[in-house]
Design goal:
Strand order of the largest sheet: 8-7-6-9-10-12-11-13
Radius of gyration: 26 Å
Number of helices: 17
Structural class: alpha/beta
Length: about 475
């Protein structure tokens, strides 16, 4: 596949070049599964246009045009099941999809996009999904560490393994879907990535092994135990048991200081969601930062996943819809939630568990913010007194003031983080002065003493009042070690 990779790069079959060829309107239409504008933009007969028509538009192309675009490579791709003959034409049997980031051009092997141009969506049980919003989110969430052994648990088409292989020495990827294993191996080979792809469910393929980073977007869709299941999205465990099983087994597979990061989903019942997840996480002994990003009502949830499976216009749609809602009633499910679970093997006597709901702006990549959180947690744990530490203002912290135009003093002061979870906090004069003065030269206590003198306040009283405030400013990321 090395020659295929070189040819795809030479032709310019990359994210940027394809977008440039199609133009913004046709590219946006293609993202909506409409190919007509892109078909009009690719009639010039160039090698790049042929590849876009072949893979992205899923059109049968004349064999001579495909041979010209992929000289000397077509027979091998036919033999390996990526292409197929259609009379005198050649058709793509899988999607070879351009993908990448600012530093890399990659190609991901996955199944063809279902439902192009309003055609019926046909998704088989072993369908291999391509790059999705979830996979992109997980890549942004994963901590940017380097070296060591890492695991892509439930690899699918292998996209997370590609990201992990750029920074780490050994990458293991697992899946229970035989077709996904085939696609993940091809994805790795096509991109020259060294990935150990293994067959098996949950933690079985890595029994007895430990890793520095585990990244996983498991099949977390919660659906009734009857009917056909799509392996890429649904497991065989009841309710949110898939995510619970991943969380429960993580500690056994993490090296000291290692991370397990889960993009997952959980049910809302009459039990508070924080208590439900605490019950999963506390027995592991791991530090955890859980962020609930979205809560979806049950009809919207069922409609989303029935549409994903192509059931929207099938005769049994209403019946399946009703059965799904009925099953939720039986299980006592009131809503569905999506979010991040970041687990860390800190091996402290009292693990730190932070659970919060965050529906506001996030500036990616989030992985750096996760590492920063761990650094702050360690610093707080090591500090005998937070006032004795030389904290510094977080990078990119901005201050906003509010009040009538021309007023001598603002009515409100708000500080806002510029990266990661863009938290904002209304602060008083002391907090604003504290944040402004902490640059690593003085301790928080020394700055408070200076503010007490400036404001004619009792320094002992001010220290006691603002000790918990300093702790919270660090915990929330406004102050850093």
């Amino acid at each position: 596949m090395e020659q295929v990779r070189a040819r795809l790069a030479d032709v310019g079959f990359t994210v940027d070049r394809v977008q440039e060829l199609l133009g913004p309107a046709a590219h946006a239409a293609l993202l909506r599964n409409e190919t007509t504008p892109a078909e009009r933009a690719t009639r010039d007969g160039s090698a790049l246009s042929t590849l876009v028509r072949l893979f992205s538009l899923q059109r049968a192309e004349p064999a001579r045009a495909v041979e010209a675009a992929l000289p000397g490579l077509v027979d091998d791709l036919l033999e390996r099941g990526l292409l197929g003959r259609d009379g005198s034409d050649v058709r793509a049997l899988v999607d070879v999809r351009p993908y990448g980031d600012e530093d890399h051009d990659w190609w991901v092997v996955c199944d063809l996009t279902p439902g192009l141009d309003t055609s019926p969506i046909e998704v088989g049980p072993e369908h291999v999904l391509g790059i999705s919003e979830a996979s992109s989110s997980l890549a942004q969430l994963t901590v940017p560490t380097s070296g060591g052994r890492v695991l892509d648990l439930g690899t699918g088409c292998g996209v997370q393994a590609l990201h992990l292989a750029q920074r780490h020495d050994r990458v293991v990827a697992t899946d229970v879907n035989p077709r996904a294993l085939w696609a993940a191996r091809l994805t790795a080979e096509l991109n020259g990535a060294d990935v150990d792809v293994r067959d098996g469910s949950f933690w079985e393929p890595v029994a007895g092994e430990q890793f520095d980073v585990i990244a996983t977007n498991p099949p977390f869709v919660v659906s009734p135990p009857t009917g056909e299941r799509l392996v890429y999205r649904e497991g065989s465990l009841e309710a949110d048991g898939v995510v619970r099983t991943v969380v429960s087994g993580a500690a056994d597979h993490l090296r000291p200081g290692g991370w397990c990061q889960v993009l997952g989903s959980w049910v809302h019942t009459d039990e508070p969601w924080e208590e439900r997840l605490h019950g999963w996480i506390a027995p592991t002994g791991l530090d955890a930062w859980v962020v609930q990003r979205e809560v979806v009502d049950l009809p919207a949830y069922v409609e989303m996943w029935l549409a994903d499976a192509g059931a929207r216009h099938r005769p049994d749609y209403a019946e399946r819809y009703d059965a799904w809602l009925g099953w939720f009633d039986e299980q006592g499910v009131e809503a569905m939630a999506f979010g991040w679970i970041n687990l860390r093997a800190a091996h402290r006597d009292v693990p730190v568990l932070r659970m919060e709901q965050w529906r506001h702006e996030v500036v990616p990549p989030v992985g750096a913010a996760v590492l920063d959180w761990a650094e702050r947690v360690d610093a707080l744990a090591d500090a005998d007194d937070v006032l004795d530490v030389r904290w510094t203002q977080a990078a990119g912290l901005a201050q906003e003031t509010y009040g009538p135009a021309g007023a001598a003093d603002p009515e409100a002061i708000v500080v806002r983080l510029g990266e990661g979870l863009r938290r904002a906090r209304q602060v008083d004069t002391v907090e604003a002065g504290l944040l402004g003065a902490l640059d690593g030269d003085l301790t928080a206590g020394q700055v408070i003493d200076a503010l007490a003198q400036l404001l004619d306040r009792d320094p002992t009283e001010l220290r006691e009042s603002y000790r918990p405030v300093v702790h919270d400013l660090v915990a929330d990321g406004f102050l850093v070690p």
